[in-house]
Design brief:
about 130 residues, alpha+beta, TATA-Binding Protein, five-stranded antiparallel β-sheet, 5 helices, about 25% strand
Length: about 130
């Protein structure tokens, strides 16, 4: 699998974010933090053409499970999801937990990562 999974939606940026947050909650994930790079760069006097919103999301139970097995996995937590615009179109995507956890080369972590990825994809697909 590629490191990035992304889908296009007909929703506006804000509609897509709201829908994604709701569907993440239904799949036992919470949004810990949100950052729009366009807005943040504008605060620094830099122009960025499109919105690029990063949502850091977490399922507490699964995070605890992987951290107890390998604390270094915390370097790739929480999971990141993105809602962005380009050429007046909205895209929603994520980095692949399975690919990232696979970098640790510990088979017992792969099953958890596979479950996390399936849940995140389900939330993303339901949000389109």
């Amino acid at each position: 699998m590629d490191i990035v999974y992304e889908e296009r939606t007909d929703k506006s940026l804000n509609e897509a974010i709201k829908s994604l947050e709701e569907n993440l909650k239904e799949n036992s994930f919470g949004v810990l933090w949100q950052l729009n790079f366009k807005d943040k760069l504008a605060e620094k006097g830099l122009e960025f053409k499109d919105d690029f919103v990063v949502l850091e999301v977490c399922n507490p139970k699964q995070a605890k499970d992987v951290l107890e097995k390998n604390v270094h996995v915390g370097y790739v937590l929480p999971c990141k999801m993105v809602v962005r615009t380009e050429d007046n179109k909205t895209y929603m995507g994520m980095t692949s937990p399975e690919t990232l956890i696979g970098l640790f080369d510990e088979p017992e972590l792969k099953d958890i990562a596979k479950d996390v990825e399936a849940s995140l994809k389900k939330a993303l697909t339901a949000s389109i």
